[in-house]
Amino acid sequence: MWLIYLLVIGIAVGFAGGALCSAVGAPQYFEMIAAAGYMLFAGILVFLLHRMAVKLDALPEKKGKGFLWLERIAAAALLAAGLFLRLSQMREEVGESVYLELAYVSSTGQGIPQFSHGIVYFYVWVLRFTFLLLGNKAMAAVGLQIILQMSGVLLLYFAVRKMAGRISAMMLLAFSMLSPYMTGKAITVSPEMLYLFLFALVLFYVSRGLNWSGDWGFWLPAGVLTAVLGYLDVTGFLLVPLMAGVIFSEQKSGEGKRAFSAFGCLAGLVLGAAGCVTVDMLSSGKSAQGIVKAWGELYHWDELQLLVRLPGFDSLWLILFLLCFMVWGIFSFWCHRKTERFSLWMLCVTGVAFLQLWGVFTEEMNGAVYLFFFSTVLAGLGIRESLAVYPLDRQKGEDKVQNQSDQNESDQNKREPSGAEITSQESPSEEKTGDGQEIEWIENPLPLPKKHVRRVMDYKLDPKKEDLDGYDVLVPDNDDFDH
After folding, report:
1. Closest residue by Cα to residue 358 from 462, 234, 175, 196
2. Buried b / exposed e along 175-197 (16+ C-beta atoms within 10 A)
3. 27 burial class (0-12, 13-18, 19+ CB within 10 angstroms)?
4. What is the mean pLDDT of residues 159-163?
5. Does residue 200 sit within a domain?
6. Which residue in 97, 211, 336, 398 is deepest, having the highest Cβ count within 10 Å?
7. Helices marked H in 390-474 — which ranges?
8. How far is Cα 471 from Cα 308, in angstroms, rounded to an integer?
9. For the segment 100-132, what is each residue's pLDDT rounded down to a tens digit?
């Protein structure tokens, strides 16, 4: 997986470097020089940061709430800034949208046509319900978009915080709230934000599985929800590797529990898919074969493309900033080879890129939001793994400190021998073994056995005669126990 990560990030850095050279008018060969120079700099920086982190964290951790409060304040500030940016752009006029025309409530009772794309059909119904409550106002649809995006990003924050750590969660929250790309998506009437909210809701549920005992009953609903999302749009099946990562994570113990969890997940996927097809059959009157065929034609394979499309993602500097931290993961992977956490998210990024290259995504759901989401998580992991100190690293640091302390103490004892050591030096027969190796005598660290003290009952006790059998009776020394 590290080779795949290196290949993907290397290609992305090459394309981004070429775009940067074209933007600033630099020669094309500068692209390779800049990419190689930054990778060398990032490698040195990562190993220096990790070495410093191990040294600073060699002693046992002192748990405190300072960082937790700092994280909460930063998250609240980012949410407030993101809400302000979105509300400030609501004053602009909303362009024409086919979704608005279909969802407007009319006096003639205009119905909603059937769509083979499930999320489009569901989104139009959500808009229709919104207009029934608030009237046929385009600003109501934009407000719904903002609420869905803010809620979805908040759920993603908690899910990523559980699965990938605080740094990745804060990176996701910062880019989602402040980037022009996500701000523009919040005021665009499309089904993407509704699907993002549903995706985040299921991922939040899946992330709770890290604390679950492995019961298949927990993973059965997760599989059903994933199948429903996959039926609405093919992007939902990106939850399958995420669920597998949680089920087979290190926090799960026991092959039996993992097997039951995997069985519950697979059973849920089958039940969810069958349920979606059944509901579609009852509502549309189509046959099961026709429904499956229509779903397959919607996501058919096109000719292979050599470029991942990011419609609307025209912020080159934002892409470069993300790639700079994603490069860190190439080197921080080797800091914790036994506990690396890149494979799961790298598999998701590769899946999105693969679907993009083969043209599987639809025009309404082009997958750029999820490529953006998984990239921010990888960027945060690149920073986290460079600074994180796991128990194995901490034990190495403690052993190194302990060995240094023992060495210093040994040197001091050699410089200042005690009387016992002088005596042992005078008797070489006791200090050397048959192989000629010296014996270093140490003081017995175990406590000596305590001397037995006879306890005498020194308070008055007048038991009943029938209760005397429960107490010790003094026996004379000359008693031979014959009667």
Report:
1. 234
2. bbbebebbbebbbebbbbbbbbb
3. exposed
4. 91
5. no
6. 336
7. 391-415, 419-426, 428-431
8. 88
9. 888 887 766 677 777 778 888 899 999 989 988
Distance CA 220, CA 264 (A): 5
Which tokens hold the place of 335?
């800091």
Helix (H, G, I), strand (E, B) or coil at 59: coil
Indicate the number of domains in the chain. 2
Between 71-85, 346-360, 449-463, 466-480, the lowest mean confidence (pLDDT) is in: 466-480
Contacts of 117 (CB under 8 A, 6+ apart): 233, 298, 362, 364
Please give the span between the terminal C-alpha atoms of the chain, in angstroms, as a whole number. Answer: 84
Specify whether 313 is located in the same domain as 324.
yes
In angstroms, rounded to a whole number, what is the distance separating the alpha carbons of residues 272 and 223? 7
Q: Which domain holds residue 7?
A: 1-56+301-381
Residue 28 lies in a domain: yes
The one-letter amino acid at 215: D
Question: Span 49-77, mean pLDDT?
Answer: 69
Task: Examine the domain organization and report whether 364 and 306 are in the same domain.
Answer: yes
The pTM score is 0.73
Q: For residue range 296-331, what is the model confidence (pLDDT) as tens digits?
A: 888 877 666 655 555 544 567 777 788 888 887 777
Is the Cα torsion angle 280, 285, 290, 295 positive or negative in sign?
negative
What are 180's two structure tokens?
Answer: 């022009």
Q: How far apart are CA 218 and CA 204, in angstroms?
A: 13
Burial class of 387 by CB neighbour count within 10 A (0 to 12, 13 to 18, 19+):
middle
Query: CA dist 411 to 417, 422, 427, 441, 445, Å?
Result: 10, 16, 22, 15, 21
Phi, psi of 114 (to 5 degrees): -75, 140
**Domain final position from 346, 365, 381:** 381
Cα–Cα distance, 422 to 353 (Å, whole number): 74
Give φ, ψ of 283 to 5 degrees. Answer: -85, -35
- CA 253/CA 17 separation, integer angstroms: 44
- Helices 118-134 and 192-207: angle between axes, nearest 10 degrees: 100
**How far out from the chain centre does Cα 42 lie?**
23
State both tokens at 365: 């759901």
